[in-house]
Structures are given as structure tokens and as C-alpha cells.
Write a structure and sequence with these properties.
Helix content is 12%, strand content 51%. The chain has 323 residues and is mostly beta strands.
Amino acid sequence: MNFEVIWEVIVRTEDETWNLGLLSECIIDKSVKNLANTATIVLPEANFNQVLNLGQIIGRGDEIEIKLGYRGHQFRTEFKGYIKEIITNDGSIKIECEDSLFLFRVSVPNIQMKPASIAQIANYLIQNVDPTINLISDYTIDYEKFTIHHATAFDVLKKLQEETGADIYFENNTLHIHPAYTRKGGDVDYSPQINIENFGLEYKTAQDKRVEVVIENVALDGTITSYTAGQPGGEKITKRVGRMTPETIKVIAETEYKNRMTDGYEGSFDAWLIPYVEPSFTAGIYDSDYEYKDGRYYVDSVKTTLSEGGIVRNVQLGIKLSA
């Protein structure tokens, strides 16, 4: 795609707004599996032999907004969040950023909740982070007991995501918690003949797959019980969860297995900035040479890279949703 790339990086401190005019590279990594979306901005350490002392004017906790586009076509905000860290190394300045889940990187009081739903746990975190934050949660998995001990709210959300497989994200002052693959973000279509630059997908049939899912539960005395779905001899997915009911563990295992046992593509591909796509989108893959492989897939992650070579989106597919 032979369009002129345009970009803008805006940093807002308590006192001023700065536009970072120099940029060597920018990587925006969004995923339903990573809890927080991140961005990495790389700048030269000096400009015309003048050292850029960014650390004196911006720092951790300052708001940041990244806009990308093509002149005359698309120019939109691709990332909003906060500066997490500024690193100077090897003649460059690296700014590590995190989306609004950065606000949850504060300690919360120790507590033991018995029993506890995900919504109850999340509400406890919100009351200790910022009571004005809203919560939308439709995930009904419960814990027999949930303990928070010397942890940040971010740590607790990460634990919930790892153990339950929930999609957890922060958007418009609202913390969202949903079962995996149920959040519908939008629709987009791709074809290797039209708008895919590098096709890295591999098509597999369900009969060619062997998947075993093992969910392990750790009791108070350290005893481990498990529930297994699927067949051994191939890919094995093992997850260790907190103290949940046997019924809940069974649901997690069987849902994970079902999601993986369909005919379809696996892997990722490279595309351009247009069309817009982000995790939770449904991506249609349509190949005029192999129409029987056509289908629609949940997008797990999108990595957008701006460099001297232009802008590239790497799109990672999740489960197949429909033909």
C-alpha cells in the first residue's frame, strides 16, 4: 500500500501538553490474552547532537495518545494510556506505555472472600482503586475461597484472567469482564489476493488435531485434583486454578477443548493499517483459490508496528466462529 504515513504522539502532564516530534519506531500490542494493551515508542537519544532530556519534562503516570494514519485516508487514535517507564539505552530512548489498566497498579488491602464471584472480587478492587469506575461483568464463575495478600489490583485481575480465561479490559471508565470470545468488537474482511501482505496461516481440520485440556485445582492442604477434556498425544494445555467448584472446573476444561476443535486456520498474517482491526473483531478470511477454507475468526491479538518501512499490522487469529 503506497500511501504516505502520518503519525502523532501526544503526552499530557499535569501542567503541559507535549507533541513528540521525533520517532524511530512505535509498536502497539493489543491482545485479549494480555490484560493490558501496551505501546513501545523508540526515539533517538539526541537530535542534531542535542541530547533529548525527556525525563525532565515527562514521566511515569503521564497520559499518552498515539495517532496513526495515511495522509488523505485514515488518521485515528490507535492507543491511549499512561507512561509506565522511560529507558535510555544504546543511543535511544524507549517509552513503555500501558492502557488505562495502569490505574490498577496500586496495592489493595489484604482480604479473604469466601465464597466469591468474579464480580464481587472486581468490585472490591474498584472500591480501593477509584469508586467512580464502573463494572460490567457477565462471567458467572465462582470461587469457593479467594485470598488477596500483598498484591496490587492489577495482580489480582491478572490472576483472574489466567485462572478463568476471561477477557478483562478497561474502556471508557468501565472495567469489563466477559467469557472468552463473547465480546464483539467489529467486523473486517481479508483476502490474500487483496489486502494480506504476508500469509502465515495454516489450515487444519478437526480430525487432524489432538488436544488435551487439563484443569488443576489446588486445595487448602496443597492437594491437587484435576479434570481432563480431550485426548492425549498432541497439544496439551494445562491450567492451575484457585479453589473453584468441580462444576466450574469442568465448564472451563470443556469450553477450552470445544473452542480448539474446529476446522480452520491457525497462526497470523501481516496486513496494512487499513482496514482497521483490533482484538475482539471478527475477521473473515476469503481466498479465491481455496474457497472451501473460507471462514470467520475471532481476532486474539493485533501488533501494529510503525517504522521506516511503513506501518504493518500482524493479526493473530483465535477460534473459528463460523464458515
